[in-house]
Specification:
alpha+beta; PH-domain like; 5-stranded antiparallel sheet; 3 helices; 9 strands; 42% helix
Amino acid sequence: MQTATYIDGKEEYSLYLSRPFKLAVSIYFIFVTIGWIGAAVVIPLFLVLSLEEINILSIFVLTFSIISLCVIAWIWYSILSTPYRILLSPDGIITFISILRRKDMNVSEIRSIKPEQASIGFLFVRSSRGKVRLLNQFDRFHELISKLKSVNPSITIRGC
């Protein structure tokens, strides 16, 4: 059984992913991104720039390339904004920390913690301030749920 860890008086709950898994997933996403940029952006743009005149096909290719870049950016934003650490302070403030941001909320504001239909392996913490998407892979997560329910018994819990 793992013991609680504290950072500045706040109890810490960390995402559990082994180092080899983190490395494999990182390499995978980097290669997929490079491949996608090459296939959906660089090659089509090279073909369009090699044309002597702009036609409807070149406009379509440019639009497709721009949409592809937006999709890639959205995927990376989603990955980098997924929390890897949760801090729970004694005064009832819960902090979700990701690479891109920190989101604080009061435990009393949380309405539910449950998965969505098409999100296997993810939980969504819904509050009056919005929602946070979590990987369902945190150490001592059941302990965190118990503490949250003791502070706010109205939280709806599903799939944890």
